[in-house]
Design goal:
single chain, alpha/beta, Phosphorylase Kinase, domain 1, Aminoglycoside 3'-phosphotransferase, Chain: A, domain 2, Rossmann fold, 6-stranded antiparallel sheet, 20 helices, 15 strands, globular
Length: about 500
């Protein structure tokens, strides 16, 4: 580390670089790396540490993991990750990519402003729903393109996953009474123990169905930036395969948890539902309580470890203790059971069903199942592709509504609020939902959205950038074929005139 102190001093001098720098040169530090900021470029090098879960103790290992970091991150953030360069020593002079003996390796990156981090944008109130919706799509595409193999799938073995979670409890038991209560500790651990017993077959199915992939591993808001007019994931974990070879829901849970920790449950819901829509992995929602708990607990653990560091001030320790306590409490909250509910949207194309459903989902924390997305996943076509007439014929429509019902009941029975977003203009389709809800003792309601026919046509005509293939000329036919609500359905019915400003709706009160 003393050699690194000399290197840091040298890297803070402008003459060290073959390019112009912005003075003063700033040095950032994480628990495993240094990052030197020069203005246009940033240079990252690894501390000579062996922490068990990572080993940067030798120069060759640091070279290897610098190259790994480049190889893993360049495909997802090509604007940021550039090359690995040696630091050389010639006589008594340290040089960047110079002559002489190599004494260190650095990862050269393009520097972007810290204000571009989603974590900083959230603090500044600059995050938007549209950015979170786009992030859901980007992460889904990233997971679809990430690799898997027999070797990678082995990391999804339930025993391996449980071992890592159990280690978290062993490493944090000493902080009971300091950063978390004994009750929280015991109940959180009991929840994960039960989960592995009850969901062993699901975890095995995730392996066989190729949901264990080479993911990001650390996908929180500090590792995502909005730079050069696009969202970029970066700092993918290179140093530990078990952190990276995980279920895709592990990654998703990290982002959701981070947003909810920041009290942005609305943004978390937008991200999650857009991810699910593009990935089609609605069954994976069953795993979210496990991984949400795990991610919050790990953040609690990391903050707890700061309490034992003799080099940290008392004020910093107090801050770490407060953060650890908040994360422990959030981890425990994720273990608490909820009452599921089915919400069945109904209305013609352009009636505002999806707009209302999205707002409901944000307010209720609901899973939004949209028939347009379900239909295209069943047909095996990209969500943004135009569907052929075939996928809107009777058999595919029946399959679509059946899939909506199966997914809705599955997730509602797990305690989720679930919105079934489709026309539900036919009495048999509505009856099937109500009957199945009664069979499974699930609460159910129908949300009927309506507006005058000319408003519907105008809305559909003005649509752009949406996955729906509906056109204005379909609306008259839909209206003629729609079944009126029966007396037996009316007790479940809530009717909304969507000409009103839907942003004023408080669905907790209306429903």
């Amino acid at each position: 580390m003393s050699n690194h102190n000399a290197l840091i001093q040298k890297m803070q001098t402008p003459k060290f670089y073959p390019h112009a720098v912005q003075s003063p040169i700033e040095v950032l530090q994480t628990h495993i790396s240094y990052i030197v900021l020069t203005g246009e470029y940033a240079y990252k090098f690894k501390k000579p540490l062996d922490l068990g879960f990572l080993d940067f103790s030798s120069l060759e290992k640091r070279k290897y993991y610098c190259q790994q970091e480049l190889d893993l991150n360049q495909p997802i953030a090509p604007d940021i990750y550039l090359e690995v360069l040696p630091i050389t020593q010639h006589h008594d002079t340290l040089e960047l990519n110079g002559q002489g003996e190599t004494v260190e390796y650095v990862l050269k990156m393009r520097e972007f402003p810290q204000s571009a981090l989603l974590s900083e944008m959230e603090k500044a109130g600059e995050l938007t729903e549209s950015l979170l919706a786009e992030l859901g799509k980007i992460v889904a595409r990233f997971h679809q393109q990430s690799q898997t193999s027999d070797y990678i799938r082995e990391f999804g073995n339930p025993a391996k996953i449980k071992e890592g979670i159990d280690n978290n409890y062993k490493q944090t038991e000493q902080y009971i009474g300091i950063a978390q209560t004994k009750t929280q500790f015991q109940e959180t651990q009991a929840f994960t123990d039960r989960f592995f017993q009850q969901y062993a077959s699901l975890l095995k199915a995730r392996q066989s169905n190729n949901w264990i992939r080479e993911c990001h591993g650390d996908l929180h808001l500090k590792n995502i930036c909005y730079w050069q007019q696009k969202l970029q994931l970066f700092d993918r974990i290179e140093f530990n395969e078990p952190f990276r070879f995980v279920d895709v829901m592990y990654d998703v849970a990290f982002t959701v948890m981070d947003l909810e920790y920041r009290n942005r449950n609305d943004f978390a819901n937008v991200f999650l539902n857009n991810y699910l829509e593009y990935s089609g992995d609605w069954e994976g929602v069953q795993l979210l309580p496990l991984y949400l708990t795990r991610q919050a607990y790990v953040r609690a653990k990391v903050n707890s470890f700061i309490l034992d560091d003799p080099n940290v001030s008392e004020s910093e320790k107090q801050h770490a203790r407060e953060q650890a306590s908040q994360y422990y409490h959030l981890a425990w909250q994720y273990t608490q059971s909820q009452q599921g509910h089915l919400w069945m949207m109904s209305g013609l194309s352009g009636s505002g069903k999806t707009t209302i459903a999205r707002e409901m989902a944000k307010q209720l924390g609901a899973i939004h199942l949209r028939s347009d997305a379900v239909r295209k996943h069943l047909a095996g076509i990209d969500l943004e592709a135009q569907g052929s007439d075939d996928i809107y014929q009777g058999e595919m429509t029946q399959r679509t509504y059946q899939r909506l019902l199966e997914l809705g009941c599955l997730l509602a029975s797990e305690g989720w609020q679930v919105i079934l977003d489709a026309k539900y203009d036919q009495k048999p389709l509505r009856e099937a939902v109500i009957q199945q809800a009664h069979t499974q003792n699930l609460a159910v309601n129908i949300i009927h959205c309506y507006a005058p026919i000319e408003v519907l046509r105008d809305r559909v005509a003005k649509r752009h950038g949406d996955i729906s293939d509906a056109t204005p000329d379909l609306i008259t036919q839909q209206q003629a074929n729609a079944d009126p609500f029966t007396e037996t359905e009316k007790p479940y019915l809530v009717t909304l005139d969507t000409r009103q400003n839907w942003q004023n709706y408080n669905f907790q009160e209306i429903l």
